[in-house]
Specification:
- By secondary structure, this protein is mainly α.
- The chain has a domain of 99 residues.
- Helix content is 54%, strand content 0%.
- The chain is built from four helices and no strands.
- The longest helix is centred in the middle third of the chain and has 31 residues.
- The N and C termini lie far apart (72 Å).
Length: 162
């Protein structure tokens, strides 16, 4: 909104200042919360979101008549049906988001292992230029039994064209 003189009105200036303050304070909060306290606060928020998602899901199950009927056709007023339909869709994303956040926090604090790591690759002979059918392990393994083929070098050899 502008006044008749073409200058921004005081309301617009106040709104812009408030928006800058909110974004600035949110950025400052993110910068401050990069330590362990911030991670704990984020985990608490994710835990709260998990509890709210699960309680909402149980309310939807109660509304529809049980867990087996949670995805059945809804009855009732249109506003209530719309609310439950949105909840059915949103709860999947909310659960994924909060469980991911809790897993990442637990990994950060060492409560769960970060992963077993990759299995050790066999020692490479260093020979180059060998045809795939000259490798005994590949020759003795049928294609139906082969689950995965990992080459222990960065550049994978090109298969000869027929």
């Amino acid at each position: 909104m502008t006044s008749r003189s073409g200058k921004p009105s005081p309301i617009c200036i106040a709104r812009a200042a408030m928006a800058r303050w909110f974004s600035g304070s949110a950025m400052a909060m993110v910068m401050v919360m990069l330590d362990h306290t911030g991670r704990i606060v984020a985990a608490a928020g994710a835990g709260t979101m998990l509890v709210l998602s699960l309680s909402g899901l149980s309310l939807v199950a109660r509304h529809t008549g049980g867990w087996r009927r949670i995805f059945t056709r809804l009855q009732g007023l249109p506003a209530g049906r719309l609310h439950v339909e949105i909840a059915r869709i949103a709860v999947a994303g909310l659960l994924l988001s909060c469980l991911t956040a809790l897993w990442m926090t637990a990994t950060t604090f060492g409560l769960v292992p970060e992963g077993a790591g990759l299995p050790a690759l066999p020692v490479v002979s260093g020979q180059t230029g060998i045809a795939l059918f000259d490798i005994p392990a590949l020759r003795d393994t049928s294609v139906a039994e082969l689950r995965e083929l990992t080459f222990p070098i960065r550049a994978m050899p090109q298969m000869p064209s027929p």
